[in-house]
């Protein structure tokens, strides 16, 4: 079956076409077009919802047309339309949802509402040898074109979603049984990077910048606190970290490049120590067969290495799955993939944007 996916929950405008067969455990991406207004937000140090939504109104139709151009006759070939209904910014969500409803009505196609957080998990269910059309972003063009053989994801699985808005641990017994175990009580992991980045005058989003700055540093000079690392639950808390960094920055006054590198490294170490420890604790407790990462922060190579190291160190034989970098951050391919495995088809009358949507 062919699914058109649409994602506009935050600042990206994305549309994708996936091909999925019921006998396969992963979907194939035919296109995954992403237009971002990130350059506008970099100047303001964060996303201004009104600016994001206005850009999305401009981009949505060309992005969908570009994504569908891999099909000869989209109206005939598309079986369903998947769209992110939440969580996210209301103005942004409405752009995607109303466009999807309109296409669904005009073409008489079913529509599948998708929770954005499930999308991040399902980025792991996209075949890695997909050939993509992603012409809106030249950097994306080669993504996923390697011919690596895909491993099977086996259940039960633990999934860690680490993005700018969320940090959640979930237990997947199967596609229909996904249980939330815990999440952040305050800032998300990506938010901790972005807020600290602002303190250090780094461009938004700061996660990738901090990863670059931390490269080559070998010593955890500042050893920031590891909040809730040893608590009995599966919760996280990252808001205290920016205060800890602020205190150091105030002490140093005008940090040198080397000091910024050290601060970046120590921040990453603190966040990743907690993420790996809690996720692996859950993996052991529920005796899982796979660990999945997803969300923008999962694009960080140091986080992947930290997981690989811990898994090896503890001699756990649990495979780790991390989507290719460009499928970690927001994209419509992951939304179409999530829709395929949770085919809750409805019609255009029955869906609406829900900015507060979370896990059940
Ligand atoms: O998943 P995403 O694109 O959007 C949300 O759903 O929030 O995640 C964006 C977040 C931002 O906070 C950004 O700083 C972070 O992911 N991020 C990273 C990296 N790339 C993006 N954090 C750490 N290292 C990275 N390489
Ligand atoms: Zn996201």
Blueprint (SSEs and pairs):
Blueprint: E1 2-7, E2 12-19, E3 28-36, H1 38-44, H2 49-68, H3 74-77, E4 80-86, H4 90-107, E5 111-115, H5 116-122, E6 157-162, E7 167-174, E8 177-183, H6 189-199, H7 206-214, H8 239-252, H9 257-285, E9 290-294, H10 301-313, E10 320-321, H11 325-328, H12 332-341
Parallel strand pairs: 1-4, 4-5, 6-9, 9-10
Antiparallel strand pairs: 1-2, 2-3, 6-7, 7-8
Helix pairs in contact: 2-4, 5-12, 6-7, 6-8, 7-9, 9-10
Bound molecules: 5'-O-[(R)-(carboxyoxy)(hydroxy)phosphoryl]adenosine and zinc ion.
**Assigned CATH architecture of the largest domain:** 2-Layer Sandwich
Radius of gyration, taken over Cα atoms and rounded to an integer in Å = 20 Å
CATH class wording of the largest domain: Alpha Beta
Bound molecules: 5'-O-[(R)-(carboxyoxy)(hydroxy)phosphoryl]adenosine, zinc ion
Strand count, sense and closure of the main sheet? Answer: 5 strands, mixed
pLDDT below 50 for ≥5 consecutive residues: which ranges? 137-148
Helix content: 40-55%
| CATH superfamily heading of the largest domain | ATPase, nucleotide binding domain
**Content-based structural category:** alpha/beta
The helix-strand sequence is EEEHHHEHEHEEEHHHHEHEHH
Oligomerization status of the protein chains: single chain
Count up the domains: 2
How is this structure best summarized?
Helix content is 41%, strand content 18%. It is of the alpha/beta class and 360 residues long. Helix 2 packs parallel to helix 4, helix 6 (189-199) crosses helix 7 and helix 7 (206-214) packs across helix 9 (257-285).
